[in-house]
Design goal:
about 80 residues
């Protein structure tokens, strides 16, 4: 899978993780991207960018990135770019 084949959500998730490595859990990233009211840190420019999606849909896209080797989890279960 090349970067061109990634969905807009997947591209945004990769961009966010590259920008803030180790900051987000899988569910936290999904919450932030859909603009969940429960997400406390609303100062990210990407907050709510995919508000038309459900959190579960965005989470599924993040899981695909993990399975495809674009992202990895660190020792604290936080998302980091693949080595």
């Amino acid at each position: 899978m090349s970067l061109v084949q990634l969905t807009l959500v997947q591209q945004a998730a990769l961009d966010v993780v590259n920008k803030y490595p180790g900051h987000f859990s899988r569910s936290g990233l999904a919450q932030m991207l859909v603009g969940a009211k429960s997400w406390q840190e609303r100062d990210f420019p990407e907050y709510g960018r995919f508000s038309e999606y459900r959190r579960k849909e965005v989470g599924f896209q993040v899981e695909i990135l993990l399975q495809q080797g674009y992202l990895e989890l660190d020792g604290h279960q936080r998302l980091v770019p693949a080595a």
